[in-house]
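Question:
Write out your own:
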Amino acid sequence: MEQARDISGVSGRYWQRLSDGRLQCDLCPRFCKLREGQRGLCFVRGRADDEIVLTTYGRSSGFCVDPIEKKPLNHFLPGTPVLSFGTAGCNLACKFCQNWDISKSREFDKLQASATPQAIADTAIETGSCSVAYTYNDPVIFLEYAVDVAHACREQDIKNVAVTAGYITEPAREEFFRFMDAANIDLKAFTDRFYWKVCGGHLQPVLDTLLYLKNETDVWFEITTLLIPGENDAEAELEAMTQWIMEHLGPDIPLHFTAFHPDWKMMDTPSTSKDTLTRAREIALEAGLRYVYTGNVHDFDGSSTYCHNCGEILVGRDWYELSTWNLVRTEAGAACNNCGAGIAGVFDDQPGNWGARRQPINA
């Protein structure tokens, strides 16, 4: 917990009063127990005037229009632009965080001017974005703000995308994902040792989130694992993880293996080799997963989508540029234009043409 002399914000949800007078934040599995003037580990939720408040409501950073594949989502409206934003803080403490300047920010004056939910929805319309992504830091910690933005977006037929580690409690999970159309869940490893040693958390709540999304929602979701040499890239761990995904989530959940680059508190760890990513992809395909991708490296084969039935290339990708498009729409959804096999995902008749552009926005 962090001490702070001045905390202000909007009333937060998911907390309770303990017998010793402290307030327990029940938004995430950390269950931070706060006295007046203290903040939780995420830094953006704190106790003020005898309640838990969210200090970053309406204070957003990093507005940018990205390709949806950058989230990464390869089976959700390919080629379309997504308006991305985040706030500050995070409820995990990953030593390898690649957005540490945002997620670990303690300087709220670095955030942009106030951005109301309606202003964000309007900006999505003005930029031609098909969706809004809650990203850069983990959106579960600004749940109240994210839900209000999602409401405003849905009223204008803008989709909502959560990029999250899935570290959230059951009651909050239900509300948060009720307003999301797609998600990328960051499954950081498949051992509790890694989660505790490297991220300061635990594995099981993330698995619970994945099971919830699969069994109790219609949210389209994909999974990303950043492979870190010597930490979470052992073949036995990858076999266990991909077998768990196959058994509990099924073969149609896209899985992205992405390359680590030295950052923040892991500057002495080497980058992930392309060979490691390729082997991880092979392991996942051998386990029965149909859509397995590599990221943060140039790999046309590992970035493209193939038909699980006939092997035909369905969506060719060169970084974020789409080439081949071999999908057709059917009553049941999308299908391979070659053999007619159904392809899991959310697809339009034709792909978008946003390409690899990254367009900063002054919201």
Observations:
- Residues 1-5, 103-111 have pLDDT under 50 and may be disordered.
- The chain has two domains: 2-54, 61-303.
- The chain has nine helices and 23 strands.
